[in-house]
Specification:
about 180 residues; mainly beta; six-stranded antiparallel β-barrel; 12 strands; globular
């Protein structure tokens, strides 16, 4: 299992022209366990706002298996030896995003009450559907096209926005290493 996991991480090198840095999670924030510290820092080339990702295998509609890159978070503090990562599941996280199917731009935020991510988009944009992939947009400080989550449910709000709640297809508590691009 570890061999398969590490091979998936190595595939990232092929897709990001060897700009990726692999790091082990060395500790988690006790108050916000989705946030963590990795064993790489500025001496390894890490910078603030670097994207922290993890490869996951999914089956496509035609039954084939493919690897996609799940956004885990962003580097928000760097020392020579370590870096702190703000998870996308943290209430302080805010990500410029795009619906991959409709190209609608919006923002991914955390609903602290529901403990879920949601994609906030204007109601007059094309309709969002269950199963739509929400990815980082070109307006983000993060790398473009990284999976944030899949639309699970949609709610209208009293404002001019619609909320699409997202399912994140990865258990953040189970990962022990990440790639940083």
């Amino acid at each position: 299992e570890e061999n398969i996991r590490l091979k998936s991480l190595l595939e990232i090198k092929n897709n990001y022209d060897s700009k990726s840095i692999f790091a082990k999670i060395v500790s988690r924030d006790s108050l916000k366990p989705n946030n963590f510290i990795v064993d790489k820092g500025s001496k390894d080339g890490l910078k603030v706002n670097s994207s922290v990702i993890y490869p996951i295998k999914i089956k496509t509609s035609n039954g084939l298996s493919t690897t996609i890159y799940q956004l885990i978070g962003r580097v928000y503090d760097v020392t020579d030896e370590n870096a702190k990562v703000l998870s996308i599941l943290d209430p302080d996280s805010k990500i410029s995003a795009r619906n991959l199917r409709t190209n609608s731009l919006g923002t991914v935020l955390v609903d602290d009450k529901k403990k879920m991510l949601y994609f906030e988009v204007r109601k007059d944009d094309p309709l969002i559907k269950k199963g739509d992939a929400i990815v980082t947009s070109e307006l983000s400080t993060l790398s473009e096209g990284l999976l944030i989550g899949l639309v699970e449910s949609i709610e209208d709000t009293p404002s001019i926005y619609r909320r699409a709640y997202l399912n994140v297809p990865l258990d953040f508590y189970k990962i022990t290493e990440v790639a940083i691009i």
